[in-house]
């Protein structure tokens, strides 16, 4: 089994790597100090098993599981036994190791991973721009559904696997795509003006050549989207 | 006070002395960094952040075989999350105990 280790603590990564080296069927392909780096790696590599720390700053192990679309088998590693019940809500989690991990307990986890069926996709995975209800949009951040007032959104920007939603009060980084949020936003207010940007047309301050000033952001307008933008303006 | 030891590291290594030294080197580098962040947060009364630091330090407490100290750290982490510093002195004595031990390696 090809595996990776995700843990913000170098000591923990070294211990798990050593434990893996004693199991001939395991090959550690890489180690990551945070989940964001691992997500990028998973987009380009096939992995059978992940040793995943739960308690990491900014982006927890559970955030990670909910972010990736088809999670491989996962063995959770943690210093806190209190997450066990939550852990087994995910089909992809095959075992739960409490640190410090002993060689004997590690062997059991590997046996479980080897005997469990090929990874089932977590039912909770991925759909992070959740629902709209009237003027509200709910986004999944840190396992909380946060309500955003749609008219307060003035800009949505694609940022790799994430989108940055800018509102009058606050900015939100959400694991989703521009296409998904575009489907949730009303056409009457929002327009995609570039492959990386959706703007709230009512928030435009001015337009100059091929760019739009919206709040303090200058946003490029692609040639193909410009005619639609011009149609939407109440031109004198 | 209970004394740190290398029992866990030795049980992990299966006699691999290179691995034992590598792990000790990593702990000697990482522990002071984590300790510094903890002291900054506890001094600034950043309870939640300090609790996260204690959470991380707990692993090293257990690696060095400090069973009772680990339980004290669990309680201190809980207290911090409740907005209390009760157990701070005991926890910081544990950190000093570990610091002294790591210097001998």
Description of the structure:
The complex is a heterodimer of chains A (236) and B (105). Helices cover 25% and strands 36% of the residues of chain A. Chain A has a 5-stranded parallel beta sheet. A 5-stranded antiparallel beta sheet of chain A has the order 11-10-9-13-12. Chain A has helices at residues 10-21, 35-42, 61-67, 84-87, 103-115, 178-184, 226-232; strands spanning 2-6, 27-32, 49-53, 73-78, 93-98, 129-133, 136-141, 144-149, 153-159, 162-167, 171-175, 190-194, 197-200, 204-208, 211-214, 217-220. In chain A, helix 3 (61-67) links the parallel strand 3 and strand 4 (73-78). Chain A contains 7 helices and 16 strands. By secondary structure, chain A is of the alpha/beta class. The longest helix of chain A has 13 residues, at 103-115. Chain B has a domain at 48-105. Helices cover 78% and strands 0% of the residues of chain B. Chain B is elongated, with a radius of gyration of 14 Å. The two termini of chain B are 19 Å apart. Classes of the chains: A alpha/beta (236), B mainly alpha (105).
What separation lies between the terminal Cα atoms of chain A? 66 Å
User: Spans of chain A with pLDDT under 50 lasting ≥5 residues?
Assistant: 120-127
Percentage beta strand of chain B:
under 5%
| Unreliable stretches of chain B | none
The helix/strand class of chain B is mainly alpha
Secondary structure elements and pairings:
The complex is a heterodimer of chains A (236) and B (105).
Chain A (H helix, E strand, L loop, with lengths): L1 E5 L3 H12 L5 E6 L2 H8 L6 E5 L7 H7 L5 E6 L5 H4 L5 E6 L4 H13 L13 E5 L2 E6 L2 E6 L3 E7 L2 E6 L3 E5 L2 H7 L5 E5 L2 E4 L3 E5 L2 E4 L2 E4 L5 H7 L4
Parallel strand pairs in A: 1-2, 1-3, 3-4, 4-5
Antiparallel strand pairs in A: 6-7, 7-8, 9-10, 9-13, 10-11, 12-13, 14-15, 15-16
Chain B lengths: L6 H7 L3 H27 L3 H17 L3 H15 L6 H16 L2
């Amino acid at each position: 089994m090809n595996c990776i280790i995700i843990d913000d603590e170098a000591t923990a990564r070294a211990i798990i790597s050593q434990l893996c080296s004693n199991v001939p069927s395991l090959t550690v392909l890489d180690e990551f100090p945070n989940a964001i780096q691992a997500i990028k790696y998973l987009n380009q590599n096939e992995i059978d098993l992940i040793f995943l720390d739960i308690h990491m700053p900014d982006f927890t192990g559970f955030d990670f599981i909910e972010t990736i679309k088809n999670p491989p088998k996962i063995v959770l590693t943690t210093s806190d036994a209190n997450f066990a019940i939550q852990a087994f809500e995910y089909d992809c989690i095959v075992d739960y190791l409490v640190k410090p991990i002993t060689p004997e307990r590690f062997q059991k986890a590997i046996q479980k991973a080897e005997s469990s069926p090929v990874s089932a996709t977590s039912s909770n995975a991925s759909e992070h721009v959740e629902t709209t209800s009237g003027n509200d949009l709910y986004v999944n951040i840190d396992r909380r559904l946060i309500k955003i007032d749609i008219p307060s959104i003035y800009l949505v920007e694609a940022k790799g696997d994430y989108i940055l939603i800018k509102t009058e009060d606050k900015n939100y980084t959400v694991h989703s795509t521009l296409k998904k949020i575009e489907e949730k936003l009303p056409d009457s207010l929002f327009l995609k003006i570039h492959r990386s940007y959706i703007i709230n047309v009512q928030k435009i301050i001015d337009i100059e050549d091929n760019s739009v000033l919206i709040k303090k952001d200058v946003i490029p307008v692609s040639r193909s989207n410009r005619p639609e933008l011009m149609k939407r303006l109440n031109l004198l | 006070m209970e004394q740190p030891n290398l029992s866990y590291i030795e049980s992990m290594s299966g006699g691999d002395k290179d691995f034992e030294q590598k792990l000790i080197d990593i702990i000697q580098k990482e522990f002071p960094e984590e300790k510094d962040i903890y002291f900054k947060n506890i001094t600034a009364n950043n309870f939640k952040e300090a609790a996260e630091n204690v959470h991380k330090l707990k692993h090293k407490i257990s690696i060095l075989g400090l069973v009772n100290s680990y339980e004290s750290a669990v309680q201190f982490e809980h207290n911090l999350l409740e907005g209390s510093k009760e157990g701070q002195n005991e926890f910081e004595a544990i950190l000093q105990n570990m610091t002294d031990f790591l210097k001998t390696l």
